[in-house]
Specification:
By secondary structure, the chain is α/β, with parallel strands linked by helices. The protein folds into 2 domains: 203 residues, NAD(P)-binding Rossmann-like Domain (Rossmann fold, 3-Layer(aba) Sandwich); 118 residues, Jelly Rolls. Helix content is 27%, strand content 27%. Strands 2-1-3-4-5 form a 5-stranded parallel sheet, sandwiched between helices. It has a 5-stranded antiparallel sheet with strand order 9-17-14-19-12, with no helix packed on it. Strands 16-15-18-13-20 form a 5-stranded antiparallel sheet, with no helix packed on it. Helix 3 packs parallel to helix 4 and helix 5 packs across helix 8. The two termini are 25 Å apart.
Amino acid sequence: MLRLALTGAGGFLGWHVRVLALALGWPAPVVVTRADLADPALVAARIDGADRVLHLAGVNRGDPAEVAAGNVGLASALARGLERCATPPGAVVYANSIQAGNGSAYGDSKAAAAATLAAVRPDLVDLRLPNLYGEHGRPGYHSVVATFCRVLADGGRPEVHQDRQLALVHATDAAARLLDAPPGGPWDAAMPQLRIGVRALADRLAEIAGCYRTGEIPALTDRHAVRLFNTYRSHCFPSHQPLPLPRRSDARGDLVEVVRAHGGPGQTFCSSTHPGVTRGEHFHLAKVERFCVVQGSAEIRLRRVLDDEVVRIRVDGREPVVVDMPTMWAHDITNTGSGALVTLFWANEVFDPARPDTWAEPVELRPRAPVPA
């Protein structure tokens, strides 16, 4: 298991790195905050003897002078700490950008930051990342994907001011590359890219949103389709859950459609749960999973991984609804009734015991201090 230290732990990429490290069963990373970076001796104490140091902290947007000063200043602060380490870290990895050196304040400052770190660590792993997307990106800051998803989740229509080609990589794949993660899960350290135009991206996300608005599952025919859907869903939860099910009734009884999927693999299964018993206590990195209670009553609990707040949704088989588990949220379901709880589950992939994409994690935790940026 690696002893990992990182800057930028509270950011978008930092969160995905920490979630993947948790899934891998590695110890919690040592966090170097921006406040820590002001003290070279403290930085040295944090990273001394680490197997791997990831420098993720940076400034993406804002006043050009502040962006430039921020990226170079953060790298310089880490470099001063590296120079003071009694036991130098085994590897230092910099989350650089393919825009490095492109003449913009951001690109040139990213290149200068890399040079600053390489001056004290000639073996620096300078990883130039393309545009990243994924769950819980900040609209208007991290990626156009997050911006479009937020607009669509709020019922709007994305505006495309300039169409250009994008090379998009999911943040979990970038995290796997930064961590040099072993194969065997729903990540790919080769960082497969989705190449798509901005307008085509807006149209694709609008199609996903339009389909999902009524609870239908869009065509999930490849890994990027799944990840775009999961990214969009992260902007819909919890405000868009649970999803009501249209009920068709006649003299014979009632009928509800639990899943209407437009393409791709899938698996449906059913469970019976005794009163007071809880199922789940895990999270998924990529798998789409849907719950529908058809008999009895239950409480579904969800918590975003590495956060503390728990979302609680009460459901009852007399009024069936569906609740879709967002990726990277720990979740469980507890029978709160006096009789058997019957739950119908649907997943977008056939279960593979060798690659289950199911990572143990309790929903209820003791309160923890938030990770600073």
